[in-house]
Amino acid sequence: MTPRRTTVYLVVGLLFSVLVSASGNAQETSVPVKAVQLTGLKGIKDNTKGTLSVENGNLHFVHGKENSDVSVTSIQDVVTGADSRESVGKTVGIMGMAAPYGGGRVLSLFRTKIDTLTVEYRDPDGGLHGAIFTMSAGTADAIKKQLVAQGAHTTATGERTAVPSPSSTSPNKEQKQ
Amino acid sequence: MKRFPNPGIWLSMFAMLFAAGPLLARKNQSAKIKAAALQVEMIQSDEIKLPAEFQVALYENLIRQLEKQGFSHVYRDGDRNAASVADLVVLRSTVRAFKAGSEQARQVTTVSGATSITVHCQFTRPDGRSLLERDVNGKVRFFGGNLRATYDFAKKAANVTHENFSSLASE
Fold this sequence. Notes:
By secondary structure, chain A is an alpha+beta fold. Chain A is built from 3 helices and 7 strands.
């Protein structure tokens, strides 16, 4: 083996070890993710924007001065899903409806894919709570993995929940109230 | 010349009408089932595949709407404090039908893409004795995300509860 080849092997080995250690660190540290809390967290209003992270065994949601923690050990189920939302804001969307000849409806065609994260947890009295978050696509799985790694339970076998097709569970007989 | 009936008769008729209202209301009140507290169990969807966010949104909205209707003691699924409450009513909800619509289709066409959900609500005593069973549905036809159907269901279910059960605290 020539000294040059040995050097090349050493450099490749070093690069590989650096990459492996970097990926390992990325899994351990929790990067706060921008999220919208749709419902379910105590003390936080519905549809509140904030940041979501997993810190010191807690699911941590921060919105300005308000924050809410859910102990990972109290979480009995974590499920991720996929959805979409309008790319344009609510105000623009509503104003667009006033556009003549239904031109504003074109705006509805532009949609952004999002992830949903649903967490079921129990309070100290044993009461069941559920919290729903939405975040940008591809970020919910990382949060879920961190939660499960720190002791949260999950019943979902797959990475994502299968969203049923509209025709699969179509209610044929509906009772009117 | 047209003759009007005696004013005394008119007065007595009005008096009867005014008196009948509260009396009928009291009769309806007494027909309500007494519920010192409500315990809401987690929404079940064994037969119907329901996304987790819908299941949780149904549950959370239902609890919130029941509290808005004046039920001061609404216990969550598994809450140990509910065990010692007399006249407790347990609400079990099972999803019977679900059609996942599309917000995009609703906004573009306004006639298609409706989301609908039908839930069978069963009110029982803790020992399992059935008090009332009713199918309640939730829909979103025009505006709002798909999860808005869960809010619609929760409002209707809370109304059904309010019509049939009286919270002892509100009396």
